[in-house]
Amino acid sequence: MLGLAAAVLAWFASLWIPPFQSPDEAAHIARAYLLADGNWFLDAPAGKMSGGYVDSALVVYTRHYVQMNARPDVRLDPGVSAAVGDLSWNAHGQKQFIEMPGTGYYFPAIYAPHALGLKIAQWLDLDLHQSYLVTRFGVILTCTAIITLALVLHAPSPMVSAVFLLPMQLFQLLSPTIDGITTSLSLLIASLYFWSLARPYTPAWSIAVMAASLFLVVTSRPHLLPMLLMPFALALLKKNKAIATVHTVVTIAATTWLWWAARSVVDHRVNHSYTTKDLIELYIDAPLRFFEVLSNSLNGEYLLFYYESFIGVLGFLDTRLAPLFYDYFGWGLVVAAIVGHLLTKTVPTHDDLVSRMVLAFIALASTLMAFFAMLVTWTPHPTEIIEGVQGRYFIVPALLVAFSLDARHPPADPLKRAIWFGWIGLFGLSSLAALHGALMTRYWE
Q: Could you tell me the residue ranges of all domains in the chain?
């Protein structure tokens, strides 16, 4: 019941965000519509990028809100929104081809909650705005269920909680894209990892849940491919061949999907004469060139943008928090680490240290993969700078770092426990306040 109550409260908070204001949200909803319509894969007619045929009324509804993207001077017009909100699904089945190549790289099952929400809305004969809200609630409910399971398995430390409650993460969690689902699944994977390490045997259900979660995460967020190392580390530490066998199959399946998607998706958003496959081979043959370009992309100006968009630059990078919050939440992460260590002083075992080092390595590798992925897919070649990297790409790596530094359970002492959860609550409320202020200023005032 608490999880359901949290989902309802989160849904009400999500009403601060007008539809289609999260990056690529329109493409994600269109991709979910295709899945709900029985189309698992994208098409690419002559002269078009990969996409599919979407209800023409949904296209009209989407375009009304998309016009605000990356235009901070444009506010929401309640009158026009109300008129567009009366749109219904096209009764005559009229459809329009929409290009959405970026979604073609992701395994379609990640859109199941969105597709189910749209399908239920159509069954109930709801209008498009109501259908959107039902879909948003379905995604939030899915995330809440995943998070609840993760918390039951392994209560998070203040540092883990702080990363998960940052304004940027909350904004994505409240938006019906796939970021909230993949980050929630990543939290579940890390919780399962430590939960399994703490037990003498690993139940079959936990192996299956970790396998399914990892497959969905890495096939929808390729820069998190290093997370596939987690179950193999678990298998070695637990001396469990079943874990290794299952996740060998998962690794083969995930890499096969990504290889197939990279070759089949028609994506001309970046104008260069090299394919993604060509660029991958080029930088594998000359790895020092990659690190040279990476070094150029880590100067002061870019680092500041990565940091601020990690804390929270919302919308289409057009909605900033109040300036004081960037320092506030940065220091809040430091305080979170200190609070966790002061309240639970334990001596880690050898296996505990090894398991944490594995997560730290995966976090570093995933961070490098984020840059590499944008270099070979989004950056014109040749280049001196990697383009398109945003701070939100580092939320899951930061979550893994937080687990590696402090994966301990809440203290038993009532006072220490109150401080532990009280601090987490304070951080969460501060994040909601920062989010509310930024969204009200951007869209509603």
A: 1-14+24-153
